[in-house]
Design brief:
There is one protein chain. Helix content is 74%, strand content 0%. The chain is mainly α and 280 residues long. α2 packs parallel to α4 and α10 packs antiparallel against α11. The termini are far apart.
Length: 280
């Protein structure tokens, strides 16, 4: 845990990716905003289009193309196609086995974190944990790591630990990272913390944390906190409230998330437990 503690106490890290031409960076940033807004299909389409153009245009280096490819893979994952995302990210990593510069090394770490997230979606949580810890060890040796990539790696580690039922460890990592997190990172870590508390049977605390996190999510995080709220309500024996919350979560999933998304499946499973436990 030494490397993780070191990362949690770092201050004023700098952005991960440098060396991308300004015009290209603006396009890549716009694609990232689409992902942040939950518009994954549009993000994938624009990333693919940019990849094709970048492949033909002079002056666009491999770093730019690699970043576009990573965004495309993130869009694929956001649509629930986790196996496809892992395959694409594996291909990127194979091309970055011997990075010639620090910016390329930073991008390779970001690619690995995205791969860890995809592994979590595939429930390959042991592999995801190993990937996250390796990335965090690498970043602990860097003098100027990226805050965004660090927090994403810590969030993925929380996901992996929760997925293995190691809720106390997940809680410790989430609480350690949250003071440095803002906006989407804070929402994601907050969701992980709520899940870890629910996993420990600390449902009142989970509800308290969920209320802190709830205002931070938009379309891209639709139902993320609601699922934790419904789980906590069910754990506290408030079955009618839990069912109502779970049905709202399911409606949000069906409205905003692609068919077969993992969160939709989890909500169906929770609803089945709630209705089975309900009297009559």
């Amino acid at each position: 845990m030494k490397s993780i503690r070191t990362l949690l106490t770092r201050r004023k890290p700098v952005p991960a990716i440098v060396g991308i031409p300004q015009a290209s960076a603006l396009v890549l940033r716009a694609i990232s905003e689409l992902l942040r807004a939950g518009r994954a299909e549009e993000a994938e389409e624009q990333a693919r289009t940019f990849q094709q153009a970048a492949g033909r245009a002079p002056g666009r280096d491999d770093l730019t193309n690699t970043t576009a490819s990573m965004l495309a893979a993130r869009a694929v994952l956001a649509q629930g196609r986790a196996a496809e995302a892992v395959s694409e990210l594996d291909g990127l990593l194979a091309a970055l086995t011997d990075p010639p510069s620090m910016p390329h090394h930073a991008v390779s770490l970001a690619v690995r974190v995205n791969r860890a997230a995809a592994l979590c979606h595939l429930e390959r949580t042991g592999e995801a944990e190993t990937e996250c810890r390796d990335v965090l060890k690498s970043m602990a040796r860097m003098t100027r790591p990226s805050a965004k990539v660090e927090l994403a790696a810590l969030h993925c580690l929380v996901l992996a630990l929760n997925g293995q039922g190691r809720y106390e460890e997940a809680e410790a990592v989430a609480r350690g990272a949250l003071p440095r997190a803002e906006r989407e990172a804070a929402m994601a870590l907050g969701c992980g913390l709520v899940r870890s508390l629910n996993g420990q049977g600390r449902h009142e605390e989970a509800l308290t944390e969920a209320r802190k996190t709830a205002p931070a999510y938009g379309r891209g995080g639709a139902s993320a906190i609601g699922l934790g709220v419904a789980t906590a309500l069910h754990g506290l024996g408030h079955r009618a409230e839990a069912e109502a919350e779970a049905r709202q979560v399911l409606a949000d999933c069906e409205k905003y998330l692609p068919p077969g998304h993992r969160r939709t499946q989890q909500t169906h499973q929770l609803l089945a437990r709630i209705t089975t436990d309900s009297p009559g």
